[in-house]
Write a structure and sequence with these properties.
Number of helices of chain A: 8
Helix content of chain B: 25-40%
Largest sheet of chain B: 8 strands, mixed
Helix content of chain A: 25-40%
Number of strands of chain A: 15
CATH class of the largest domain in chain A: Alpha Beta
Strand content of chain B: 15-25%
Number of strands of chain B: 8
Number of domains of chain B: 1
Strand content of chain A: 25-35%
Distance between the termini of chain A: 58 Å
Number of helices of chain B: 9
Shape of chain A: elongated
Oligomer: heterodimer
Shape of chain B: globular
Largest sheet of chain A: 9 strands, antiparallel
Largest interface: A-B, 62 and 55 residues
Distance between the termini of chain B: 44 Å
Order of helices and strands of chain A: HEEEHEEHEEEEHHEHEEHEEEH
Order of helices and strands of chain B: HEHHEHEHEEHHEEHHE
Structural class of chain B: alpha/beta
């Protein structure tokens, strides 16, 4: 290979590596903290289902060997450990899989729960939901999933029994992150509220951009709400940054990306996507994403920023 | 305040067009030398149109849910004949592989919805029938980097079931090659946007002879940490076959999207958007993602084809 090409390749690699270093995963604060010294004891038997061997513990490095395609969601909420156990059922029944995720904080456990909110409310732990054999809840910094691989009456009963047993062994309560409570109430669809730090979690619920325009990361606490007012739909993102400068920079980047003036009363219509708006007050940023009308954009921006609240950096 | 009716900003497609000319380093921080996603930006696009074959058979699934090996093999061969426009399946397969080839069949072992062993065996048999020595054919997924046949491979056949995926939107033929990367997680950024770069790795580039997207019981929605429930699969009884992985995945994605509309009775787009398919076209030049430039050949059972 010619020396010039080698040099160019090395420079390209260096530039790419530097760019990669800025990526979410490479942030120093994203390095997974050590898990707690002990985890909950998982049952050896539930109804007619019996555990296959010991519970297995996975950390952020080994979780990919266990979960293919969804592990990144838990890592996006600072997963420290996943304690897993599989239960074999009687003849004609398929397995039940129990996964107990220890996240970085109770807020993160809330965030994981809000990633998928489809299901019927259930009375286990906090905010439990059930659908198609899958029961999950949060408790403290834990997110617990009990999944029957085939939903039957006995399997559903066993899943509930298993979840209740785990809940009884877990510490922690079920507070709601402060930033979530700051979402304006009018028109907010309760089952469409999410808590997040990671740009791709945002993009999963409402696509914003390929780049991390808002500089979301582990030190940013964000709540996303879907609104419906008078039949018009919009998404509102509230985010608390470490300080006013970071919030202002993020608002500025958003404004430049979508061609907005740095004025909370400005809004812009992006073809095929809807109306966008952004503003910051203190350490808090508000952004309206893909709203159905300019009027709703303006009202949500006004409601979101008219009464500044303390940044919610405490444990809920 | 901006004009009430003024449309500013850019669309997502604009972004993709723009990015197609750029080397994006967002996920490249821990890539090995030669794995830089941006390197493929200089690769010429596949010109013109792409042919994709959708073949379905009402009887390919038995009562126990397993594929009927004979029906499956017939479907595969009908697809390859239609794809190559050869007179027979034997001549069609000889277009795919030669006796001098070493063939790696890149499968998928995902516990909940793996590539059917019956299909792996059908492909293996056809490669051997086309003259490839049996010792020069291997099926593998997680162990491909250490598999001696894959290490010597001159030809690859790529096959996996279609499913939704929480980080890339869809588990596609394009995504199936992520195990060729030494650090697959390096390609996870921006909904796995840079998956096309894997196809430009030196031990992969230019070797793929056939892509078989398995849509016997595809998965159109995820559930739980392991992203699977039989409630979100349906007996589509099809294979999507082509030499262009982008075009194959584009057709598969349209079928999944249509099934989601039917099931949920509302517009519920695949989320996150599986934009790695379009980016594999616009940024990496691996094939055609524009449905208007895909010639879809439909064979067999047509009820509920969704596309």
């Amino acid at each position: 290979m010619p020396r010039r090409r080698v040099t160019a390749t090395l420079i390209t690699c260096a530039v790419l590596a530097a760019g990669g270093a800025a990526w979410f995963w490479a942030r120093p604060s994203r390095r997974p903290p050590a898990p707690s010294a002990t985890g909950p004891a998982l049952p050896t038997r539930v109804a007619a289902w019996t555990a296959q061997g010991q519970a297995v513990s996975y950390d952020p490095q080994t979780i990919f060997s266990y979960i293919d395609g969804h592990a990144e969601v838990y890592l996006a909420y600072g997963m420290r450990r996943c304690l897993a156990r599989r239960y074999t059922g009687p003849s004609g029944e398929r397995d039940i899989v129990l996964d107990v995720f220890e996240l970085a904080s109770p807020e993160d456990a809330y965030g994981v729960l809000t990633y998928d909110r489809d299901g019927a409310p259930a009375d286990v732990g906090h905010d439990a939901l059930y659908r198609h054999g899958w029961l999950r809840f949060r408790q403290g910094r834990y997110f617990v999933s009990a999944l029957a691989e085939q939903e039957t009456g006995p399997a559903k009963a066993a899943v509930f029994e298993l979840a209740r047993g785990v809940s009884a062994a877990l510490p922690g309560d079920g507070g709601v992150p402060g930033i979530v409570a700051a979402l304006p109430a009018e028109g907010l669809q309760a089952d469409q509220v999410r808590y997040l730090h990671h740009p791709q979690i945002l993009n999963t619920h409402v696509w914003l951009d390929d780049a991390n325009v808002l500089d979301l990361g582990p030190d940013v606490r964000a709540a996303l709400g879907r609104y419906r007012r008078d039949g018009v739909v919009a998404h509102l993102l509230l985010a608390d940054y470490p300080g006013p400068d970071a919030a202002a920079r993020a608002a500025g980047a958003f404004a430049r990306r979508f061609g907005l003036a740095l004025d909370v009363t400005d809004s812009v219509k992006v073809p095929d996507r809807g109306w966008f708006g952004v503003g910051a007050r203190g350490a808090r940023l508000a952004a309206v994403i893909a709203a159905g009308s300019q009027e709703l954009t303006a009202v949500l921006m006004r409601d979101a920023l008219q009464e500044p609240k303390e940044a919610s950096h405490g444990t809920p | 305040m901006g004009p009430l009716d003024q449309e500013r900003g850019v669309t997502r497609r604009d972004v993709l067009r723009t990015f197609s000319a750029l080397a994006i380093g967002g996920t490249a921080g821990c890539l090995d030398a030669g794995e830089a996603p941006g390197a493929a930006a200089q690769v010429p696009r596949v010109a013109g149109r792409s042919r994709v074959v959708l073949v379905r058979h009402r009887d390919v699934l038995r009562a126990d849910g397993r594929p009927d090996p004979a029906v499956l093999q017939r479907m595969l061969n009908e697809a390859v004949v239609a794809l190559t426009q050869e007179a027979t399946s034997a001549s069609a397969w000889r277009r795919m592989v030669t006796p001098r080839d070493v063939v790696g069949i890149k499968s998928n072992v995902w516990r909940s919805l793996p590539t059917p062993p019956e299909l792996e065996e059908a492909i293996r048999q056809e490669a051997v029938a086309a003259g490839v020595a049996a010792a020069n054919v291997a099926v593998d997924d997680r162990g491909i980097l250490d598999n001696p046949v894959f290490q010597r491979a001159t030809a690859l056949v790529n096959t996996r079931p279609m499913r939704t995926h929480d980080w890339s939107g869809l588990g596609t033929c394009l995504k199936n090659y992520i195990m060729f990367a030494r650090r697959p997680s390096a390609y996870h950024g921006d909904a796995c946007a840079s998956l096309g770069a894997v196809w430009r790795l030196p031990h992969v580039a230019g070797k793929t002879r056939l892509n078989v997207l398995v849509m016997l019981t595809p998965q159109f929605h995820g559930l739980g940490p392991h992203s699977f429930s039989p409630a979100y699969t349906w007996p589509y009884r099809g294979l999507v076959v082509g030499t262009d992985p982008v075009a194959v995945d584009t057709i598969g994605a349209r079928i999944i999207g249509a099934q989601r509309r039917e099931h949920f009775r509302e517009e519920r787009p695949i989320s996150p958007p599986p934009h790695h398919i379009e980016i594999a076209d616009t940024r990496y030049g691996l094939g055609v993602s524009d449905p208007a430039r895909i010639d879809l050949v439909r064979l067999g059972w047509q009820d509920g084809a969704l596309v």
